[in-house]
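Listing S7. Sequence submitted for prediction.
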Amino acid sequence: MSRRFVLGNVAGGVRLRTARPGYDAGDPALDPRFLSFDSQWPNGFRLIGSGVAAVNSLPGGGWTPIPNATTVYRDIPAAGSGPDRVALAWGTYGAGSFPYVAPGSTSITPFNYARRYDQMNVILGDNYIRVPVEDMSSPTHGLYDGVTYFLFKVLASGVDPTPAAGNNAIFGNHPSRGPGLFIARRGADVRTCGDDDLILSTQKNHFQVAEIGQVATQYRDGFSKKDAFVTLSRSYPNYPPVVAFAAEPVSYSDGTFQQQLISAYWVSPNQLYFHTLFSTEHGHNIRFAVAASDPAYQGGVDAGSTLRCLAAPSIGFGVTKHNVHADAAGEWDWIFRADRMSLQFRGFGEVTTGRDTGIYTLPVASTSGLALVFYVMNQPGVGYIVGCGASSVNMFYDPSYAYKKWWAICTAAPNQYYWRRDGDAGLHVGGFAAVCNVADF
């Protein structure tokens, strides 16, 4: 019989381990691809902040990297500094319509959508997340309506310290936090660690992915835009954020790539439309992941005694939002479920930025499709520029730098990334590439 979760001793250590349907979480030899969570992961993501904000409610300003071109940004307050953080962020719109050209047609017709997410690169500075809020697909370069984000704590060295034996998990009464489920990252003592070291807790939010996929865009007759529709395996009536990035095919003869700005539109609860801003004669592979987490949820302590944890065949093991009884929880009232994928870095390596433009090998290969990779680049005078799937200094440019001294990096294949730089632009940049487990899901 397959055990979907184990909370206890596995291979000599106390841990919470959950598996995908059909696999035994208690099997110490189980292929890691089939685990959806393990508190002993070497570098599991710890969610330390998330939110949804109106663009006009945030402080900000603008850079002018070249004459008559200003990058407009906003700053989100977020405690912390240094390279041990990564983030996901999107510029957002509510319901609207976009111009669409059907295959074989040259006529533009409006197509309605419920919500739109444009994934961003961000700068992680001292106690803030800096996001570009100018919609580059708009003819007037107007500002997004809102910003959605998740901020994570990771280990910039790649691997957590050796586990602290016996002090990784509490399921019951915590000495200072009260009753609940508390799982510390590997190497931290769950009895005394801070919130940032809790990888899972009934008192804070947790990030998971519900579904991933990959789709090739199509050239539309008579137009240079490329796009793709995807029908998902299930319905998402809350229209959650969507991680999405594109890469040119590896067969590009000159080794170059066009970093794409991807718009993900929810056209119905089970259908996404992806649209790329730029175009060449080549198609694009778009990798996407649908978030299973509510960015607006901030966690908290229950007002009274509430059944929050549930073991059931439909979900394996789950934890609800605070004050939500597990027997009454709806599809999106869960902060954690065994049938969704939590994130970890399973491969971690330095990006040697002094290299010439070209294709290079990722620290570990994805087992299915384009690798989901976070690129963290330390740009002197700017901060840590972070992107998922792709990153570039183009959107965050210090005006003291000479024009065209830029770099860009992009996932290109399950085991490769493109690095491109102009002149000596990359020589003063240091960074790393970290491959997520989510491509295994």
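Caption to Listing S7: primary sequence and predicted structure tokens for the chain studied. The two ends are 22 Å apart (CA to CA). The CA atoms of residues 242 and 290 lie 5 Å apart.
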